Amino acid sequence: MKLPNHLLFKLLLAFWITSSLVLGLVIGLPHLQKSFDREPLDPRLATVLNRTAERLAETPPQQWRQLSHKLRHYQDERGREFRMSFYLIDKDGRPVFRGDRRLPREVRHFLLELDSYQQPMRYRFPDEVVFGPKEVQLNGETHYLIGKIRAPHQRPWLFFLMAHPGAFLLVAIAFSGLVFGLLAWHLGKPLRHLKDTAGALARGDLEARVDGDTLSRRDELGQLATSFNQMADSVTTMVKGQQRLLSGISHELRTPLTRLQLALALARKKGEDSAELQRIGREAEQLDAMIRELLALSRLNMQITDSKHPLDLIDVLTDVIDDAGFEAEQMNKQLSVTMPEHLPFKGIENLLRRAVENLLRNALRYAENQVSLEIVRQPNEVLIRISDDGPGVPETELETIFKPFYRVAEARDRDSGGWGLGLAITQGAVEAHQGRVRANNRTPHGLTMTVTLPLA
Q1: Which of 250, 255, 369, 429 is deepest in the core (most CB within 10 A)?
Q2: All domains of the chain, ordered by start, with CATH?
Q3: Confidence (pTM)
């Protein structure tokens, strides 16, 4: 018969074990201590009681107290000396000596544990041993003699808990903490692995899966891991299928477009260059540009899962910045650059180049005169700021300009070029490095694009 292996059963089992042990100690320790402390009267102490009773019977009553003082010292078979005291009580348990107004606490506890005066025994206390009673006939009355030896002895540490409730509470807390700590580790380890796998999948690692140890569990966490892997497989299939579809469609569109451009070129060679053909040529060029952007977006999605490697960010962006400077000169605009000589980074070169190139080209297209690029290294991240003095973007659209095919009507039109894919490509490249990109308007006009990339 297999025990249930559910999380609820494990939680109940841990609670049951902890509660049972604590309750068992609370209920069982007093009985265990009683059985340990209570023992039959051994022959040596019985002999001491008998000799003391004989001497007590031979001694006049007025000298009983002096006799008791004479018998204070006791030596065992090993030669060790112990302090001994004797107490004479009547059948009601009251002390016979007038000076003994009240018996010691240990003797009173001994009398409470005593089943019968006719059954002598020995009872252990932390620092003393009480033994007896021994029946003594004095002056025609029945009395009972009880002895007490000051003899400390080692007791089990569990009995220490009975005498110190605070220590018992600490032990109970420590034990319950240990049990539930082990349970938390048993449940937390697969959850942490599942969290790390989900994070890797969210960062674009489509091959991330939960390991076999978690999958082999027979509880709800194992079922969750199996469902997670199935979900990851479905997501990977859909994403890769979408990427293949986009790439395939883009490539297929290039074939008729190339034929169209070739036919236009042949027509122009024959002297056929009407306004309609010019319009067709412009539309074909725009369609070609859009297909290139779609192919770039498709390649970006495929490169997101590429492994990152150490590089110098400045070396990677140098060619992009030089090309942007050349374009700025041709457009009679000024590009100012502020950046360190070297900046170690860990990333994917093509994605970093494309992200910054799109932002620079966008800024140059809409700037009136000035574009600035600033690369700043901070303790835990790299900031790349690209600013222009163009018309800016409406405040309500600063977040939506990064969506694919989204274009701001007030600042862009089809004649300006672009199909609203450049910023989407930039955002995808930045997010592939666990970074973020945001847009802010400048005063009095212009736009600042800020890219934040965490340092590995």
Answers
A1: 429
A2: 41-158 (3.30.450.210), 308-454 (3.30.565.10)
A3: 0.49
153 catalytic? Reply is no
**Mean pLDDT across the chain, nearest whole number?**
79
Integer Cα distance of 379 and 194 in angstroms: 30
pLDDT tens readout for residues 203-243:
777 788 888 888 888 888 888 888 988 998 888 888 777 77
| Predicted confidence (pLDDT) per residue in 386-401, tens digit | 999 988 888 888 888 8
